[in-house]
Amino acid sequence: MDGKYGGYHTNTLNPTCTGTSVIAVVYDEGVAVMSDTVVSYGKSARYKNVTRQYKVNDRVIVAFSGDHADFHTLQNIIERQVSKWAVVGQKLNPSALYAFLTSLMYQSRCKMNPFWNTLIIAGWEDNEDGGKPFLGHITQKGVAFEAKHTATGIASHLLTQVIEDETRDKTALNRAKAESILRRAVELAIYHDCLADNEFEIGVVGKTEKASVHTQKPIIGDWSIAETNCQYE
Amino acid sequence: MDMMGEDMRKAIPALGFYPQQEISTGTTLIAMEYDGGVVIGTDSRTSAGSFISSRTTNKITPITDNLSVLRSGSAADTQAIADIVKYYIETYSLLENEPVTVYRSSQIFRQFLYQYRDSLSASVIIAGWDSKLGGQLYAIPIGGFTTRQRSTASGSGSTYVLGYLDKAWRPNLTKDECIEIVKTAVGLAVFRDGSSGGVCRIGVINEQGTTLTLYRPDKPGFPTVTLPEAHNTYATHVKNQ
Fold first, then answer.
1. Residues of A in contact with B55 (CB under 8 A)
2. Does residue A12 have an active-site annotation?
3. Can you identify the CATH homologous superfamily of domain A15-216?
4. DSSP code of B8?
5. Over 70: is that where the pLDDT of B76 sits?
6. Do B199 and A223 touch (CB under 8 A)?
7. A10, A12, A51, A215: which is the annotated catalytic residue?
8. Which of A44, A171, A206, B52 is deepest in the core (most CB within 10 A)?
9. B132 touches chain A (CB under 8 A)
10. Contact B195/B42 with Cβ under 8 angstroms?
């Protein structure tokens, strides 16, 4: 509809090209984020091999679900903001970007002009005690919270319990265990989410690992129940 | 189309009313005739909105040893119709002491699907063999129009492969050529359609009866599609690694 003068974008009231769930898990020395690489146009898998994670700097990754066009605008805004901060010598901590994005998402929502995205901010927070992992979740309305594991989209309904079971009251996770939890989540997502794809990426950022996003081997899953599945009678 | 249902689907949080999205076999059904029978292929996904409620559904419903119905649309509607028509066909064949022809079976389906067209959301393919006309396919889309086809596709995934099927079809295809085409078509549809997925079920119906084969994604033989390499998503100066 009408883009405001000087505004970034027009009202997105109907998402078109969308991304489905993002799942992220904090481990002892970092955070791992999983997202698939398909762009859905309604229920059609329209474009493949498109990333839904953005490495902001060595310490922060932003991942999204929801409208792709809105996130590409957000990526432009983040890049611009990061270089403005760099001019004054500020290298971004994840919590700073998280706070900025929370305000941005909430303000846009208040103007009835939302970014149709749910954002996951994953990073390594530098502090005097050597640093700690950071994981933040910001919804389309501007609701924001930090967590040890989180999911967006249909995965937030289906898979949080599975991840909770693997992480609660257990010894601290390492990177390999965190990634295996995410792979298990991908398997369940392809079983139960129409919009999920088995081609996916895992982004990792931590104490010793600079932020980086890597394509993973596609997961096929176990289809042995199809052998015994009978008619509906 | 019935618009009243649209309003009834809206949630009313104040009353705690959250309507469930209709369970549908948004689906891929492919069928082809060859000399001596028919080849049928389906995916195995049943969805409720974007949730997959069943990932290994069997959408090929046998009516007799030589007749099956491929179901798409509302899962409940098609199951109910298939049960009723199966009963009718069994009764007629017992009373008349001979098998009911595929043509007559398709007309019985048509009777129900046309009469109740405003209450049903059902789109089916009747596939079978009889000694009178050999292998036959009858497509009955929503509304109840019935037409015999040599090669047909139905369901949400069908739109992605109509071009492929048009190009692949030629006269006098053999059974194995048909199986390859049908299998590839299911694989292509599943690649693109969010409402289709899971395993690939292929069936061959001929004088000997019905033979069903299962192709699982985690076993060899499943129709795969090669994914092209990725380009950059963001501007070229943005590196994700």
1. 191-192, 223
2. yes
3. Aminohydrolase, N-terminal nucleophile (Ntn) domain (3.60.20.10)
4. H
5. yes
6. yes
7. A12
8. B52
9. no
10. no
